[in-house]
Amino acid sequence: MAMRKPGYIFAVAALALGFVVVILGAYTRLVHAGLGCPDWPGCYGFLSVPQSESSIELAQMRFPDDPVEVFKAWAEMIHRYAAGLLGMVILGLAIFALTQRRRPGYPVGLSLGLLALVICQAMFGMWTVTLKLWPQVVTAHLMGGFATLSLLLLLSLRLSGSLQPLVPTRSVAAARTLARVVLLVVIGQIVLGGWTSSNYAAVACVDLPTCHGEWWPDMNFAAGFNVFHEIGPNYLGGVLDGPGRTAIHFSHRLGAVITSLLVLLLAWKLASAGLGKLAGLLVAALVTQVSLGITNVLAHLPLAVAVAHNAVGAILLLIMVAVNYRLRAPARHGYPAANESRSALASH
């Protein structure tokens, strides 16, 4: 059995913090606080949210076109503080990985890649504000958060030494191929969800299973999926007309149907390969996510449900990462853990 590597607890803590950051980001977006502070990295020129009469007056002098809304400013700054803390933790993981670079099999490259990703995330966080919620940047920032979370899970799994590769069989090989496809489909559906959110299209259709009472409503896909939006306008609240938003929302619905069918097929394949627990987790996450999506439409996007929809989407992605890690092909000359154990014995 593979031994747990140093830094495992540190990585799990970073994973938990990363999940909190993703949820805070979703909450900030859903309460329309993405521009709660019109500057970056501070807030109206302060390190924290201006609250006294004098500081609010000074803030309004500095940004006369952006009235101070303390609640939204705090939502934005708490998200920034948490993201900054996560960045420091990932920096610590990268530095620690460099000290362990002589240890066989230690994921140094993955740790450094995480650091590079979180630096890019900081840049996208800045552009989210300076480009006034430009949908392309907001969606990329969301995907960067999900990617960070996925890589933190992968780092935790590699450091844990658990979930060794399965004995190669025909059913395992078939499940492995399908799992890779489904992972890509889930990622695509999350991108669609991010595009829906960043263009404020979540309530473009408020009935089910039809949209505006029609099976194929009036839609403008060219406008809805125009990735060359003009830079300059304030995109808070969105700028697309009805048919453009409807096209985005409808596409997300169709994506949900395709994703659900493929995830269920994968769950069946996993159960056939002897991975009933993973299959059960996958189905549970899928059913919860679909239920939350339906509730969002019928109840007109309640805040708690919308935040939960983001959270369970992240969980579904993490389960898919774990599934693909579990189904990975064993090393050519035996399991990596076995090779590492032999190297450790040889060094003593």
What does this structure look like?
The protein is 67% helix and 0% strand. With 348 residues, the protein is mainly α. It has helices at 8-30, 53-62, 70-99, 108-130, 135-160, 170-198, 221-224, 242-272, 276-298, 303-326, 336-346. The longest helix has 31 residues, at 242-272. It is a multi-pass membrane protein. It is found in: Membrane.
Question: What's the quick description here?
Answer:
The protein is mainly alpha-helical and 348 residues long. It has helices at 8-30, 53-62, 70-99, 108-130, 135-160, 170-198, 221-224, 242-272, 276-298, 303-326, 336-346.
For the structure shown, list the relevant keywords:
flat, 348 residues, 11 helices, 67% helix, heme biosynthesis, mainly alpha
Q: What number of structural domains do the residues give?
A: 2
User: Major sheet, described briefly?
Assistant: none
Roughly how much helix do the residues carry, as a percent range? 55-70%
* Average pLDDT level: 92
Roughly what fraction of the amino acids lie in strands? Answer: under 5%
| Head-to-tail CA distance between termini | 19 Å
Shape: flat
User: How many distinct beta strands?
Assistant: 0
Order of helices and strands: HHHHHHHHHHH
- Taking all Cα atoms into account, the compactness measure Rg is 22 Å
Question: Which regions contain 5 or more consecutive residues with pLDDT less than 50?
Answer: 334-348
* Oligomer status: single chain
Structural class computed from helices and strand pairing: mainly alpha
What is the number of helices?
Answer: 11
